[in-house]
User: Which sequence fits this backbone?
């Protein structure tokens, strides 16, 4: 696992209200928050965390930094991320919602060329229970264990983590890859990470309607993952055409309308109007031999069955 209790963390946008709250919670959890960045506030402190104008200056003062958690406003995220990468930081967690899509495309290209892991945007980040908290996860819902939890959702991730904890099933990690249409990392990427993680014995994927990431994940599990995987898909009862809050679901809705027009025009060869629906994702998981929970409360029992069967 790339994240440990010794990971040094920088908060970019530490003066933002959300960051001001959660930087304290991260530090209280034991995360090594060694610096904050907020242009114009260099030389000050926020709750014992030194603040700098630039990432480069922060690293000269405090030494190497492994991870940056980004809370800046949406149109400033790309600059903050590129600044962190230029300074040598290779793990980014973007909490900010509403990052411009083309900015994210630019960031992905840069991340690929520098081998930088990006979580988000529009993500509560990552938690390794008992070791490190990056972002806005409510730490009290989690407990150390062997269940790897990968999700596109935010609050649903917390709900499932709490359900697992109450069932005596601790987690090796809880990570939300984000709810936007363009993301820095995928289900497949995290599946590979957890498949290689010695502490993780079973993996839970929490998907939702919109996009095709879950279908790709199901295919990847069938081809490359040795550990047992459990899935849940949110949004199966949402009426078609209904827009949801996540940008990814909105993008999928627009794509659905475009495909519908093409179908009416007779051009259907390259389009499947079911892609993005809960039914399509569930079918993909089942085809790959992955048990699918009907509701979040069923996940714990499926995980227990997977652990018993080895």
Assistant:
């Amino acid at each position: 696992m790339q994240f440990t209790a010794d990971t040094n963390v920088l908060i970019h946008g530490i003066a933002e209200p959300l960051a001001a709250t959660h930087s304290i919670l991260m530090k209280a959890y034991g995360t090594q928050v060694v610096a904050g960045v907020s242009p114009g506030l260099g030389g000050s402190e926020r709750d014992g965390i030194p603040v700098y104008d630039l990432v480069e200056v922060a690293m000269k003062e405090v030494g190497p930094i492994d991870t940056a958690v980004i809370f800046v406003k949406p149109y400033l995220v790309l600059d903050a991320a590129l600044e962190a990468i230029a300074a040598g930081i290779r793990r980014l967690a973007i909490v900010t919602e509403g990052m411009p899509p083309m900015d994210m495309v630019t960031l992905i290209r840069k991340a690929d060329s520098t081998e930088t892991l990006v979580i988000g945007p529009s993500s509560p980040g990552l938690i390794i229970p008992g070791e490190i908290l990056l972002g806005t996860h409510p730490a009290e819902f989690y407990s150390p264990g062997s269940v790897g939890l990968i999700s596109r959702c935010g609050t649903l991730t917390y709900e499932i983590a709490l359900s697992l904890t109450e069932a005596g099933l601790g987690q090796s990690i809880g990570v939300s890859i984000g709810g936007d249409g363009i993301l820095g990392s995928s289900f497949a990427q995290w599946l590979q990470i957890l498949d290689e993680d010695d502490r993780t014995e079973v993996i839970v994927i929490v998907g939702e309607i919109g996009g095709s990431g879950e279908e790709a994940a199901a295919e990847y599990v069938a081809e490359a993952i040795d550990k047992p995987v459990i899935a849940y898909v949110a949004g199966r009862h949402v009426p078609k055409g209904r827009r949801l809050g996540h940008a990814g679901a909105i993008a999928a809705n627009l794509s659905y309308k475009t495909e519908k027009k093409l179908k009416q025009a007779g051009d259907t060869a390259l389009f499947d109007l079911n892609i993005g629906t809960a039914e399509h994702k569930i079918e993909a998981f089942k085809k790959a031999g992955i048990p699918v929970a009907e509701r979040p409360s069923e996940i714990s029992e499926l995980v227990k069955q997977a652990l018993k069967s080895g």
